Amino acid sequence: MADEWTNDEIVALSHGRVTGMQWNQIKNDNFTAPWLLNRTAVECRNKFWREGIRLNGLDVEAFDAFLANMENDDVEDEHLLEMWSFNQQPIVQQQQPPVQPPDVDLQAQLIQNLRNLVQAQSVMIEQLSQVVAQLENISRIA
Question: CA-to-CA distance for 85 and 3, rounded, in angstroms?
Fold first, then answer.
């Protein structure tokens, strides 16, 4: 349980209210969980960021690889997450299905069906015209 993070800590990360410069202060003053007591500011920062990244649906394994690559670089903490965040896309976003090329046979069949429908409607209109003409003849005779 001591290894878990509070909602306040996660909210602080997700809203960008915690910068790298604050980690020593946070470690010493604000969070008294036993996990934090013997950890460096960098370890705390990495765990905190990692949890926020997981909760925001981003790729935690890619973040871990990014941190491993950055270990030897001299990058200030407050710029590290910005560098990671740039162009990251949530994993949970909906995937668009690949665009299928049009099915030529299906299109030809649809066109033929439409032609048949128009022709059938023309025949029905002609038949209705004949019925109307017959009714007019009957009404004249009567």
Answer: 25
pLDDT tens-digit map of 16-57: 545 554 544 554 444 445 555 555 666 666 776 766 666 666
Rounded CA gap, 86 and 102, in Å?
A: 37
Q: Is residue 44 classed exposed, middle or buried when 0-12, 13-18 and 19+ CB atoms within 10 A define those classes?
A: buried
Spatial separation of the C-alpha atoms in residues 43 and 51, rounded to whole Å: 12
- Secondary structure of residue 10 in the 3-state scheme: helix
For the cut 80, the answer to whether the pLDDT of residue 117 exceeds it is: yes
DSSP assigned state of 131: H
Residue 43, judged by CB atoms within 10 A of its CB (0-12, 13-18, 19+), counts as middle
Higher pLDDT pick, 97 / 12: 97
In the chain, what's the furthest Cα-to-Cα distance?
111
User: CA 3 to CA 47: how far, in whole Å?
Assistant: 10
